[in-house]
What does this fold into?
Amino acid sequence: MDTITLAQNVACGAVGKMKKGSCASLLCALVVVVVLANARVTEAVTCNPSELSPCLPAFTSGQAPSANCCNKLKEQKPCLCGYIKNPNLSKYVNSPYAKKVLSTCGVPVPTC
It folds into this structure.
């Protein structure tokens, strides 16, 4: 017996005798509820390298990153590979200092 048939038997058996169509509708509703309950809501991130301006001193001179810098790095984390691939930004976000800043802020160094 496959998983869908088992789930249908369990769902339909739990509510007693039902018409086949009603049982299928109930099963679909249960699947939708489970999927929606497990869905993760992800926020869209607008990639804007100027958001990392609080990190510039840390990226260029090795200063300790500010809390604001760390917050911005965490917000812009999905954008870091794009910044690394951009020749105008790479010298900042892919520098040895930047790797230290990422580590200090608890942001994993991206593997692009």
Residues 20 and 33 are 20 Å apart (CA to CA). The radius of gyration is 25 Å. The mean pLDDT is 77. The chain has two domains: 3-38, 49-105.
